Amino acid sequence: MKENITLIGFMGTGKTSIGRRLAEKMEKNFIDVDDLIETQVGKPISMIFEEGESEFRELERKKIKSLRIKKNCVISCGGGVILKKENMEILQQISVIILLEASKETILRHIKSDGKEKRPLLNKEDPLNEIEDILRIRKPLYDGFASFRIIIDHKTIDEIVNEIMKLLGKEKK
Ligand code: S3P
Question: Is 92 within the bounds of a domain?
Fold first, then answer.
């Protein structure tokens, strides 16, 4: 089995909190790609986005490239990581990719409780509409790159983590 696990999914699907708990339980190191970018640049993602989304995507691409040498990690990616095929080729080489899925209502609830400034792409007048529009474009990409998918609605972090661990047990060694 591949040593690393990558979590992908739309904003607000809990990739960071689930990833952190999964890493703890599986005794792996936890990597949050957005956190790495913020630490490197010394600015929050929202400020990086002020310079343009393409600036952020380039930082994200470089960060993913730097992960090629990682071992024994749970990697939590920003929701837009699937927009560059190059990112996903690297992640597929080094890890098992798990897609976290949620209804748009769950997504909206999570992003509201995190604070709307945190997600520049959804910091709009009608975020539900925005979620629908972005999801429509991204859904085939998420589906295409994932080896496994988990629906997170109405589940606790521990339930989701247990589900992931069960799924991984099914993977061919
Ligand atoms: C983005 C998702 C965010 C962050 C950035 C762009 C996206 O991460 O990388 O705001 O394009 O979906 P989360 O998925 O952790 O919110």
Answer: yes
Binding site membership of 78 for ligand 1 (Cβ less than 6 Å): yes
Ligand 1 centre distance from Cα of residue 168 (Å):
25
Q: Is the dihedral of CA 44, 45, 51, 54 positive or negative?
A: positive
Q: Is the shortest distance between the CB of 121 and ligand 1 below 6 Å?
A: yes
Nearest CA to ligand 1 atom 12: 79
Nearest CA-CA partner of 9 in 19, 22, 24: 19
Query: Tens of pLDDT along 2-59?
Result: 889 999 999 999 999 999 999 999 999 999 999 999 999 999 999 999 999 999 999 9
Where in the sequence is the domain holding 63, given as residue range(s)? 4-167
Which CATH number does the domain housing residue 108 bear?
Answer: 3.40.50.300
Cβ(63) to ligand 1 under 6 A? no
74-117 pLDDT tens trace: 999 999 999 999 999 999 999 999 999 999 999 999 999 988 78
Number of domains in the chain: 1
Is 172 a member of any domain?
A: no
